[in-house]
Amino acid sequence: MPPESTSFLFRNIALAGPSGELLENRDILIEKDRIVSIGLSGERTNAAAPRAANPAGGTEKPPADLAGQVKLPAQVYDGGGKLALPGFYNLHCHVPMTLLRGYGEGLPLKTWLFERVFPFEALLTEEDCYWGSLLGIAEMLAGGTVSFSDMYLLTPGIARAVRESGIKANLSHGYSTAPGSKGFADSRAYEGTRFLIEAAREDKSGRLVADAAVHAEYTFGDERFGREIAEFCREEDLRLQIHLSETREEHEACKAKRGRTPTAFFDSCGLFQTPTIAAHGVWLEEGDLDIFAERGISLAHCPVSNLKLASGIAPIQKIVDRGIRVCLGTDGAASNNNLNLLKEANLASLLQKGLTGDPLVLGPARLLELACRNGALAQGRADCGSLEAGMKADIIVFDLEAAHLRPVYDPLVSVFHAADRGDIVLTMVDGRVLYKNGEFTSIDIAQVLAETDRIRGEKLHRLEGKR
């Protein structure tokens, strides 16, 4: 981890306020992991202070006494021509699956899972998941993501990558049942979740959070398993991650098998009595939305993955209109093939405009809410996801000087409908700069690339030997 800075000042930068409003020429003062003040640039500073080079980059006047709260020296960042936003929240990911990026292309979901993904995953080790997670985390940090929700296996490797990289994460071990399953307490998912609970308790920063997870209805047994994990969530005060109604096939098969939708089935088990993040929800019915609204379930919308796997298009505007919290997710890089929240936000907006025939739906301020504050709240991080005094200092910076962004009339329009992730020049998590101008401060990216290439070669060799 990079050393913790005592203070950091973004000088003369534009930013998006809590409601998406543009605030120009602002200074943002960071102390340790918090935003302590935001004010007009130059307020309560010594305007005659000499210009000086500083480790944050650029040349700028050091702050003398912004609101009387900072002492020299502080790191200072020249925000001229730049826009600060809250960091993005990726509410559905399988980060070690970055190792499978581009593997098994052009297959429907179940074929892709059972004939490509599951055999590959059976060969993975904790060390493999560590390197795959670091690769995915590096991609997310470069793309402005400050926190992600993950469902996978071999969780110690993922937790290690989270701790070392400095990113935030809600981690879970997906639970599936198989013929002969005795119950959750005898499963690997239970062991993995127990590990995460202890890891989260030991993580004094609060960046690592443990969730429980149920993979999906089509890999799940009867109600008794659902009741058991629901009770476990209540006892341990855990949030839940789950896949719901991703494809029409799984949705209709559940109705034929159980006489109810996947959402109704899991609700009957008491599973949704705990705060839940449900991924996909492409084929949710009106009764399902009633359950979502009543239980306070958050939906992680993954438009790129849903289109790539031909799963369909979720009716997000209708869901938003029901007062249901909608967040954004990428799914794994194996089914996307990126971990790019900016791309998800842009596509989410375009799809809903096309579906509804209304060009005003999912506008820039709403997209900011989906990508930032909604995700933070769904993860249980009430002090994150917004640029306000007292909130955690999770900040990303866009350089608005590129030709494809000019002229700028509304910076949020430029961000969500013209920018790409290469326009993000800084990512800060808990007051620490983890990515700046193409370089990582906590990840040796050259080593990560070498290790993941090695893992790819080893796994392909073993898989080919089995065919």
Give a short overview.
The protein is of the alpha/beta class and 467 residues long.
Can you tell me about this structure?
By secondary structure, the chain is α/β, with parallel strands linked by helices. The protein has 2 domains: 7-86 and 390-440, Urease, subunit C, domain 1, CATH 2.30.40; 88-378, Metal-dependent hydrolases (TIM Barrel), CATH 3.20.20.140. Helices cover 36% and strands 22% of the residues. The chain has helices at 109-121, 126-142, 155-165, 188-202, 223-236, 248-258, 262-268, 286-295, 303-308, 316-321, 341-356, 364-378, 411-417, 445-466, and strands spanning 7-16, 22-31, 34-40, 52-53, 59-60, 75-78, 82-86, 88-93, 145-152, 168-173, 208-214, 239-244, 276-280, 298-301, 326-328, 395-399, 424-429, 432-436, 439-440. Strands 1, 2, 3, 6, 7, 16, 17, 18 and 19 form a 9-stranded mixed sheet that branches. The chain is globular and about 70 Å long.
